[in-house]
Design a protein that fits this description.
The structure is a homodimer of 311-residue chains.
Chain A (H helix, E strand, L loop, with lengths): L1 E5 L8 H13 L7 E6 L12 E5 L10 H7 L4 H11 L4 E4 L3 H12 L9 E7 L5 E5 L9 H17 L7 E5 L10 H12 L4 E6 L11 E3 L2 H20 L5 H4 L9 E4 L5 E3 L6 H16 L2 H8 L5
Parallel strand pairs in A: 1-2, 1-4, 2-3, 4-11, 6-9, 7-8, 7-9
Antiparallel strand pairs in A: 5-6, 5-10, 10-11
Chain lengths: 311, 311
């Protein structure tokens, strides 16, 4: 399989991406024949096994603060633009970047496009849970105004990702709400509930509340991107609080989100992984692993299948 | 001043309410001539200074899970129904209960009613902040679908409460959102921003994000009740996590929400304070203090003033 990696993305580019690659090759946990395609301007001496690496030199970089659509148009030789071109042409099977999130979203939608039938592709977020597992919250901020059908699709996309990549068996899906019973919540949550309940592809457990996010209740937690983004950023802030208060605890250490690597853009035609701007080596390692797993398990194929009328 | 207290409300009624009264009288921090009116069925021997206490015996109790409107109708001699009747008749100046929240809301709206010009009364929530102060988040779950004008009024109501009762000088108001700049967010947040910015009665500091809730950014945090309730319940869950992980820290101890007593129903014509079902003595003490301060500072009068066209 061919995995593309934007070596210019993130605050510590390209050094941490390279270190992540080193980790990846040193651990050699893969049984897949992985070829890494690096997009960007690379250091002269790469401490890497060159057999497994193809370098695609690019001359431009899209900055973290640039306007996505404008930047992609004006920088056709940027690592992100060239990466998406390779992805669209089938030269790579997945594309990873810790760069400009907006440019990664726009690049996904314009080059490989949304899967037919998907109304709104989505990005999720990992949530540390007291039981030691990770929760998968979506949407995490891309779709701030949603229709009930969007939430149903987020649940489906999230369930497939949680099952195939996070390793859950029939992941429990919870609808984030402000009460336990059906009929509670705002108009969106009220309308989404029956859609989730009726969808036989989902293991829907009903409403969950803010207090359940870090607990065992649900593996996949669904909401519109406004609430999801507030939850994500609030959860991220706990790490800083824990550090400044000098609290040392295994559970609270798991609020350091950088360790989880990146998140996939779910609902587009090929695996695209977006990393946090502050990604370090371990995050890059994890992103490569996620891409590898998405290809290996044919997550995209399974999403397409789930959208068939017979599914 | 005359303060009414529902002695039957809360999981530990009437014992903890009585203990709270004891604390209140023992501390004697008030310079106001406070007469407490107790609604309910009281123990025979009250360990209280009877000079300052008027007992209003009632024979019925509205349970925590009862349907609010139905219960108020079918139990006219319940402590909540009689309390609101006294409040509406001016026999008491404020009413406190740790009982059925829905019945307290419905009772407020039907007996003393919303202040003229207030579109939607609201309930807030205290948020522990790293700087040692409390934040004031509203709406905390009563109004899950809102219009921009509702958020503007929540900001105004919250600012007056934060200034008069929580002691902030020109409290900083933040709009909870998913980005820093104006124009970010869902349709509601986008439309609410200019209303908040243009309102000269507000010290509006712009958007705040999930990561800012526990920090110094804003004293008053405004959002619709869906997001607000998710934030509140997520914050409440941190206390249990901290306890189960055996973390001992002054800041994280402040996530025990019971210590803050109750919250006012803001936007109705008289002070109404609603307590948590699990309220203990200290919470009742704090609720009496909040009622006392709301009367002393004429919070209702100031809210009415702020709604005048000349304000």
């Amino acid at each position: 399989m061919n995995i593309g990696l934007d070596i210019m993305g993130g605050d510590f580019a390209p050094l941490e991406a390279i270190k992540g690659l080193e980790l990846y090759f040193n651990l050699q946990r893969t049984t897949n024949n992985v070829q890494l395609h690096l997009f960007g301007s690379l250091p002269e001496h790469l401490p890497l096994p060159t057999d497994n690496i193809t370098i695609v030199p690019t001359t431009q970089v899209i900055g973290m603060e640039e306007h996505p659509t404008k930047a992609l148009k004006e920088k056709p030789d940027s690592s992100i633009a060239v990466g998406f071109a390779h992805l669209a042409q089938g030269k790579i099977d997945a594309f990873i970047s810790a760069g400009n999130t907006g440019a990664m979203m726009v690049g996904s939608l314009f080059s490989i496009k949304a899967i037919e039938g998907i109304l709104r592709p989505t990005i999720g977020a990992y949530m540390p849970r007291e039981n030691g597992k990770l929760g998968w919250l979506l949407d995490a901020g891309i779709n701030s105004d949603c229709k009930p059908e969007n939430l149903e699709q987020f649940a489906l996309l999230g369930s497939i990702f949680a099952e195939e990549v996070l390793g859950y068996d029939r992941p429990k899906v919870g609808l984030i709400n402000i009460g336990e019973e059906e009929g509670k919540g705002n108009l969106l949550a009220q309308a989404a509930y029956p859609l989730l309940r009726q969808n036989k592809q989902l293991n829907f457990i009903g409403n969950i509340e803010g207090r359940d996010v870090f607990l065992d209740e649900a593996d996949v937690m669904v909401c519109e991107g406004f609430t999801g983004n507030v939850i994500l950023k609030l959860a991220e802030s706990i790490h800083g609080l824990v550090q400044r208060r000098n609290v040392h605890d295994e559970f609270f250490d798991r609020f350091e989100f950088e360790q989880y690597g990146g998140v996939p853009v779910l609902g587009v035609n090929k695996p695209v992984i977006i990393g946090h701007g502050i990604s370090h080596a371990k995050a890059f390692l994890n992103m490569i692993r996620i891409a590898e797993k998405m290809i290996e398990k044919d997550v995209i194929g399974k999403i397409k299948q789930s959208l068939q009328p017979s599914a």
